[in-house]
Amino acid sequence: MGLGKFFIKMSDLFTIYRWSNLPAIVRFNEADSSFSNAMLSFFTFYDQDREDLLKLMHNKIVENIPKIILSDIPLNTKKRIIEEDPNIWDRVLDISKEELKDFVKDDNIMSKITQEYNLKKENIKIEQYLRLITAKNEININKRVFKEFYEEPYSENERSLQKLNLNIDLKRKIDQYNKALFDIIIRLTNLKRWNKMHRNINSSVSAHSYYVMFTSYILSLSENVDNELMFNIITASLFHDLPEAFTGDVISPTKRKVEKLDKIITQIEEDYVLSWSLKNKQVNDVIKNIMPLIINPFKGEYGRFVRTADLLAAIIECSNEIRTGNSNENFRRAFFGMKTEIKGTSPFDIYSIIDEIEYNTFK
């Protein structure tokens, strides 16, 4: 497949920070922000035609790929570039796609991840609004302490929201989703993975969740799965760690220490998610339909894709530590332990991906 090096490179999203030229009390990276936006988009578009939702999620996933080549270019800078020359940004993206070929050797995958779907005109407008709401959430968190630094981006963001002139009922619906979801998202952004160990490259649970969705989607494209299975894979991967917003990050080895402990924790997670969703009617209307995918993200055919992506994400996190000189042997042991596990979990031959990751980790 030739995707191992690509998956390693995509973990650069953990170190590309938003608002990087401003002080912050919560430093959001691109994966954190993309998770937040994907969650809000999923709920907002859930009632639309399934194919339209999948097209939107495809765009949400592949739009980040150029960033691993370009890094993050702030929105105001990007707007100025386009104002100076409307065609230059397209040329920049074309060059980044050419450079991407160094990481993706599979022509079939390359053709799919370098194209975005054309969305309905109204959906484009809604998507722009959701992107601005995601930015507003991040601004508001940091504006509490660094008001003078965030006043200008806040005002510009508000002007952009008003220009979209969204239907008032739709705005109210999105605001209700956002209020319920961001309370959860900010918890997941503050939950750090592998929190018992020093890490050179930190990743939050929210960043990990986005990365798992990204990886599972790319694996699904490589296997040409149908829309129903694709929907289940995207949904289960996006929400697979949602319960940790309530329970914290209870690692799998702990769950398996005592017989039946994992079942008790699963029941506790379901109770927490249900309690939260029942307090938020708009959210509950969606949650009740996808609850089996949230509570059992690794079940059935879709679950094998999600579990494979989850293990791949953890292997990449170990790889990042090993490659950046972290001498903690736990990362090396975890790398090889999960390498063995993933080969028995994956629904297809994943040896070439794992071998490529291992080569680039230890070369």
Radius of gyration, CA atoms, in whole angstroms: 20 Å
Structural category: mainly alpha
Q: Distance between the terminal alpha carbons, to the nearest Å?
A: 20 Å
The CATH top-level class label: Mainly Alpha
Number of strands: 0
Q: How large is the share of residues in beta strands?
A: under 5%
Average the pLDDT over all residues and give the rounded result.
91
What share of the residues lie within helices?
over 70%
Number of domains: 1
Description:
The protein is mostly helical. The protein has one domain (4-362): Hypothetical protein af1432, CATH 1.10.3210.10. The chain is 72% helix and 0% strand. The chain has 19 helices and no strands. Helix 17 runs parallel beside helix 19 (351-362). The chain is globular and about 55 Å long. The model has no long low-confidence stretch (mean pLDDT 91). Pfam families: YfbR-like.
Structure summary:
The chain has 363 residues and is mainly alpha-helical. Helix 8 runs antiparallel to helix 9.
Attribute tags:
Hypothetical protein af1432, HD domain-containing protein, mainly alpha, 19 helices, 363 residues, 72% helix
List the helices and strands and how they pair.
Blueprint: H1 4-10, H2 30-45, H3 50-62, H4 67-70, H5 75-84, H6 88-100, H7 107-113, H8 121-143, H9 147-164, H10 168-190, H11 205-223, H12 227-239, H13 244-247, H14 252-255, H15 261-278, H16 281-295, H17 300-323, H18 329-345, H19 351-362
Helix pairs in contact: 1-19, 2-3, 2-8, 2-10, 2-11, 3-12, 8-9, 11-12, 11-17, 12-17, 15-16, 17-18, 17-19
